[in-house]
């Protein structure tokens, strides 16, 4: 094997091997067990499919059982992707609801493998079954895109899809489409292009999903002896309130102080100083106060909303954070507050003061 072949083998196999490690990592995550385990299954199926392609490219004489295993894993990628999307987009998603959507294609795959094994039916697997697998995968990618689009249409949060919760799903949809395209059009490029695409996308996805914007730490000298007077702070507070009322940046679960300061055209130190010294609030408390006000309005306008949906549409990235913040600012849980609302109450946010009326 030449040096170029060795490099090609390393680059094409690294994605599949790292995909297996990531699958194990997500499977053992305790938080959001359903979402993480479906992501683990998705990465596992993609990795098996890719590694099969790598083995076949460098050794066309590999056993037919490995080829059947790789194509069977590919058959499950689409259904798992769609179930993964449901676990994020639908608050009522549960393993009991989703397992039947996985059980049926799994049953078809197992029965096909038992009745027509690859070893004795290579033409069938290389022809009809291969086409069914590819078009089924594409169908589920489209179905997941439709699910995400409908979720955004139903949501009152205009930046819902840019939140931390939805970022991995969007990346998986894009990655699946690119990998599918690489394999489907391999006859025009190279069969190994799908594996190389997966390696590249996996590295990009890890960097994107786990990237967090780190605010620049402010030293005491940053605004020592520069405290704003009441006359100076007044116009700034009015500008901040007007921006929060009209633009509703707090609905973005990923909002940070540097991001908000940039939107306002202020240095971060100015916003921090205004909140801490003049409004006597921390940045998280100020943002969560607006989010809770929004949630209280939604409870009245749309009383049928489930708590998970309510939390997401109010800018919270987890239900536990929503519960903690709500009780901190109201003294009661969201459920207790909702029960105390009269059926005829029509609660809105006063655009002049930002308070409930």
Our measurement of the CA-to-CA distance between the termini, rounded to an integer number of angstroms, reads 76 Å
Helix and strand succession?
HHHHHHHHHHHHHH
CATH architecture of the largest domain: Up-down Bundle
Approximate shape: elongated
Q: Whole-number radius of gyration?
A: 26 Å
CATH fold type of the largest domain: Rhopdopsin 7-helix transmembrane proteins
Number of helical segments with 4 or more residues: 14
> Number of DSSP strands?
0
Uncertain runs are 212-225, 344-357
Tell me, rounded to a whole number, the average pLDDT: 83
Beta-strand proportion? under 5%
- As for the number of domains, it is 2
Secondary-structure class: mainly alpha
The profile of the biggest β sheet is: none
Give the fraction of residues assigned to helices.
Answer: 55-70%
């Amino acid at each position: 094997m030449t040096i170029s072949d060795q490099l090609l083998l390393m680059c094409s196999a690294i994605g599949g091997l790292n995909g297996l490690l990531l699958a194990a990592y997500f499977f053992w995550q305790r938080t959001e067990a359903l979402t993480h385990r479906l992501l683990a299954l998705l990465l596992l199926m993609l990795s098996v499919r890719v590694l099969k392609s790598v083995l076949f490219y460098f050794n066309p004489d590999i056993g037919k059982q490995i080829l059947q295993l790789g194509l069977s894993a590919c058959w499950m990628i689409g259904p798992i992707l769609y179930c993964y999307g449901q676990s994020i987009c639908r608050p009522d998603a549960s393993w009991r609801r989703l397992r039947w959507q996985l059980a049926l294609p799994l049953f078809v795959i197992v029965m096909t493998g038992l009745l027509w094994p690859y070893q004795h039916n290579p033409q069938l697997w290389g022809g009809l079954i291969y086409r069914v697998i590819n078009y089924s995968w594409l169908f589920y990618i489209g179905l997941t895109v439709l699910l995400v689009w409908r979720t955004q249409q139903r949501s009152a949060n205009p930046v819902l899809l840019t939140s931390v919760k939805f970022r991995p799903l969007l990346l998986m949809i894009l990655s699946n489409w690119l990998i599918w395209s690489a394999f489907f059009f391999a006859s025009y490029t190279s069969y190994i292009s799908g594996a190389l695409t997966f390696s590249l996308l996996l590295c990009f996805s890890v960097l994107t999903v786990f990237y967090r914007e780190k605010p620049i730490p402010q030293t005491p000298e940053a605004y020592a002896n520069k405290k704003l007077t009441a006359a100076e702070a007044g116009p700034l507070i009015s500008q901040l309130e007007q921006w929060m009322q009209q633009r509703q940046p707090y609905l973005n679960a990923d909002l940070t102080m540097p991001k908000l300061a940039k939107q306002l055209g202020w240095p971060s130190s100015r916003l921090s100083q205004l909140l801490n010294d003049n409004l006597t609030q921390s940045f998280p408390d100020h943002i969560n106060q607006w989010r809770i006000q929004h949630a209280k309005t939604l409870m009245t306008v749309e009383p049928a909303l489930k708590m998970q949906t309510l939390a997401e549409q109010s800018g919270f990235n987890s239900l536990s954070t929503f519960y903690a913040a709500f009780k901190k600012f109201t003294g009661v849980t969201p459920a207790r507050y909702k029960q105390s609302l009269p059926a005829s109450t029509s609660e809105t946010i006063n655009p002049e003061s930002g308070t409930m009326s």
